[in-house]
Amino acid sequence: MKRIEFHDREKETEEIHGILDSEPSLITFVYGPINSGKTTLINNLIGQLPEEYAPFYINLRGRFITGYEDFLNVLFEIDEGSATDNIGEYAQSFLKDLKILSGIPIPLNLFEQIFEKKDKSKDMFKYIERFFTEMSEKRVPVLIVDELQVIGDMKIDGHLVYKLFNFFVRLTKELHLAHVFVVTSDSLFLEQVYSEAMLSERCKYLLADDFDYGTTIAFLDRYGFDMHEKEIAWHYVGGKPVSLVRLINEKRSEKEIEDVAASMLKLRTGEIRQRIRVLKIVNKKILFEKEEMELKYDDVTKILDKFSDEESYTYEMITPEITYLVKENILFVDPVNCIIKPQSHLNLLAIREVLKNV
Ligand SMILES: Nc1ncnc2c1ncn2[C@@H]1O[C@H](COP(=O)(O)OP(=O)(O)OP(=O)(O)O)[C@@H](O)[C@H]1O
Ligand SMILES: [Mg+2]
Questions:
Q1: Ligand that lies nearest to the alpha carbon of residue 33, given by its number in the listed order
Q2: Which superkingdom is the protein from (predicted)?
Q3: What digits encode the pLDDT tens for the residues 256-272?
Q4: Whole domain around residue 301: which residue ranges?
């Protein structure tokens, strides 16, 4: 099997190392458009962390979470072989050869105790805090939660996500006990987070965007693209890592890059056209600030029209139409820089195609 090597991300990696070098004090949100390489960046980084760190990587993607029980099962890695009340000794036992853990280890008996409690969140946070404290004498815990928006709307005695944020603030700003990274490609979720008073001055935001031109060309260089092929790739898919990987693989199977890229554009154009045209025949409503708002075809195309000669624009306010286009994965909102742009360069070209005959 021919692999594709991890490419670049020097700037982002350096920034994260800078965060890890100092005492934990802020929650770091790693955000960016869909498929920009956020998860790959984080995984590459934690795979190379020095021994003084203890990374815990929890990915909520694809996990079916409907209540606390499910969430506890994702958050913890239940250790069926252990039964102990001594969290100190238990945490120490992980220090010898710690791998990247995809959950916080917990002996079965303690997990069951939390499970039985009425206020589960209090006890689960207490356990994690204790576990990290015991561990922190030798290693700095690094907690990473990928796709946190999965539990964004979940309510059990109030929003679970806010309880988590409170806990993350405790781990970072108050106790300086663990580094916390939250990764998300849901820009509407991030926008909520960004305007959340509880989190103001307690977070840091790190944009992991698609590759820029130089990085893209250097990436394709490694896989034998000639100048013409590189320009074609950049013209169609820009610096979207997932699409570049697709083109690299297609080239390996001796396909014509231009044909593949053109068919990717055709497909995406059709999809976007469908999502827009459908508004002409159905009265679609969207939940916006807790109100049901009707979406009008003309208002939605007006937003898209801004991209007929710009690649991005600065917004004043997120409207229901923008919300719809973001939910449909057509546009990306960057609330930190107040910028709206298509999710990818391919989306930009597809939008322009759609606009040709609205
Ligand atoms: N730095 C990189 N070097 C090489 N390939 C990369 C790199 N970053 C991403 N990729 C490729 O792009 C694909 C998508 O990346 P990844 O899943 O990390 O994106 P993401 O931003 O986490 O996506 P999502 O928005 O779905 O969470 C990866 O499977 C990998 O093939
Ligand atoms: Mg991801």
A1: 1
A2: Archaea
A3: 999 999 999 999 999 99
A4: 274-358
